[in-house]
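Hey, sorry to bother you again with one of my protein questions. I've been puzzling over a protein and I'd love to understand its fold better. Take your time with it, there's no hurry, and the full record follows here:
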Amino acid sequence: MPARNESSQGIQSLEVAGRLLHALARASRAMMLKDLAAEAGMAPAKAHRYLASFQRIGLIEQDPVTSHYDLGAGALELGLAALARIDPVRLATPLLPALAAELDATVALAVWGNKGATIVRWEDSARDVNVHLRAGAVMPLLASATGRAFAAWMPEAAVAQALDAELARARRAGRDDLPHDRAGAQRLRAEARRHGIARVKGQLLPGIHALAAPVFDHRGTMVLALTALGHGGQFDADWSGAPAARLKAATGTLSRRLGAPEAASAAA
C-alpha cells in the first residue's frame, strides 16, 4: 500500500479537537460541557480531555463560577493576528472579473484616502461604458455611488469637510439633482443605509447608473466600496434588482471574511 504523504496525513486528534474550537466560535457564547461536546459530535468525557489541554495553552478558558467554557486569550490573539494579515483590497480584487462578467457591468473597488473616496482597482465591462476609471481617481461624495456609500457608512466627522465643500459647489452650480445642505445630504445617507446600498442615476455622468455597497472590517469600520456601473438602458439600478442583490451578497461575504460584526455584515 503506498505511503501517504505526510502533509496530507495530518494528525487526526488535532482535527477532532478543532471541532470544539469551531463549535465555540459558531456559538458566540460560553457553553456548558455537555452542550459543547454535543455540538462538536463527541462524548463529554472525551471533550473534557481536549478542553483541559486547550486551557493549558490559553485557547479556551473556563468560568470558575458557572463552569462554562469559552474561547480564551490565546484564541483572541490568534484571531487578531489573522485579521491583521488580511488586506481588504487583495481579498476583494480576485472577485472583480467574475462579478463584471456576471453583471455585464464595469466594477470597481475604492478606499477612503487622504483626498476622499479613491478608486484602487477596476474591471471593465464587455459593454462600452465610457467612464475612464483610473487608479487614484477621487470620486465625489454627492454625485457618485462610490462617494455616497462612503458618506453613508463612514463616520460623519470623517467626511464632514469634504461634504460641506461639495454642498457649496452644488449650490453655486445650481445642481437640482444634488442636495444643497446637510439636511439633503442626511436624506441621501438615510436612503443608502435603508437599502444597504448607494445609488446614482446620471448624476456623475449623463446616462450612467451606478450602485455601490460597503465592506466592513472586524471593527465594524467601512474599509472598501464595491461599485458596479453601466448605461441606464442596460444596467438595472433598482434598489431590489439583481445587481443590487449581487453586490450586497459579495460585500457581505467580504465583510464576514474580514471579521465584521454581524450587524455590519448585514448592512453590506
